[in-house]
């Protein structure tokens, strides 16, 4: 595990694109043999960004139901500085239980472990592993891997901050070739599956590019981002 972890850390540190960043979450999932790995970041201006392996249907459902406003993982981790086993968080409210059952129906496992990370100027991030396991098995997994996961969480966050600083240095929105291609495909009316196939990337990676473009364009949602990209002349259909 030690050598494989070192190689994973090297791949995070070497990431120069959002596709590299997304690939690092997939490599983490493979290394630890869990169902999902997600890095979720709220930057210093309150804008959100995420990369990971949650199903697109669950991400869409989470946003549509506005689960962010009552997610026990978000609220529980925001109030602490140490990692959280999801079993130790407060799931007692009816909305929280509804969200949990909804998550299970959309392919998430019953166990989770989230590492909160705080950066400069109010930046907050969560590095999360999700899996299906009995409580005692999951507790053993955390005991064996908790220290390494803390290191990984901070490496992911350090790389995310590098991306943010790089974007802050730009005076006008400038989308990468992949971001432009993703926006152009959506503007042409293609589904996310079709767009991902055209770009020879996974739908998870496509989502990373779409969210990054939305963030750079200051758009409220994907439709707004496409409209801004068109109106500014960044893409032509």
From TrEMBL:
A Pfam family of the record is: Autoind_bind
Q: Keyword Nucleus, does the record have it?
A: no
The answer to whether the entry has keyword Kinase is: no
Query: Domain named HTH luxR-type: which ranges?
Result: 168-233
Name-wise, this protein is: LuxR family transcriptional regulator
Q: What domain of life?
A: Bacteria
GO biological-process terms attached to the record? regulation of DNA-templated transcription
Fetch the InterPro entries from UniProt: Sig_transdc_resp-reg_C-effctor, TF_LuxR_autoind-bd_dom, TF_LuxR_autoind-bd_dom_sf, Tscrpt_reg_LuxR_C, WH-like_DNA-bd_sf
Q: Entry's CDD domains? A: LuxR_C_like
Q: Which UniProt keywords apply?
A: DNA-binding, Transcription, Transcription regulation
Please list the GO terms describing molecular function.
DNA binding
The UniProt entry, under PANTHER family, shows: DNA-BINDING TRANSCRIPTIONAL ACTIVATOR DEVR_DOSR
């Amino acid at each position: 595990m030690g050598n494989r972890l070192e190689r994973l850390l090297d791949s995070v540190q070497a990431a120069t694109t959002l596709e590299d960043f997304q690939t690092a979450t997939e490599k983490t999932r493979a290394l630890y043999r869990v169902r999902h790995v997600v890095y979720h970041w709220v930057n210093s201006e309150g804008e959100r960004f995420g990369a990971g392996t949650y199903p697109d249907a669950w991400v869409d459902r989470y946003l549509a139901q506005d689960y962010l406003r009552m997610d026990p993982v978000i609220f529980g981790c925001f109030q602490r500085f140490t990692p959280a086993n999801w079993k130790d968080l407060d799931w007692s409210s009816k909305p929280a239980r509804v969200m949990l059952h909804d998550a299970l129906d959309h392919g998430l496992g019953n166990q989770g472990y989230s590492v909160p990370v705080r950066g400069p100027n109010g930046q907050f991030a969560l590095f999360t592993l999700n899996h299906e396991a009995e409580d005692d098995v999951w507790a053993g997994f955390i005991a064996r891997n908790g220290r390494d996961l803390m290191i990984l969480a901070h490496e992911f966050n350090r790389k995310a901050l590098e991306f943010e600083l790089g974007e802050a240095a730009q005076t006008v929105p400038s989308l990468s070739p992949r971001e432009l291609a993703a926006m152009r495909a959506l503007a042409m009316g293609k589904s996310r599956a079709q767009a991902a196939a055209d770009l020879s990337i996974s739908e998870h990676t496509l989502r990373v590019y779409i969210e990054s473009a939305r963030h750079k364009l200051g758009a409220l949602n994907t439709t707004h981002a496409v409209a801004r990209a068109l109106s500014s002349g960044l893409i032509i259909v």
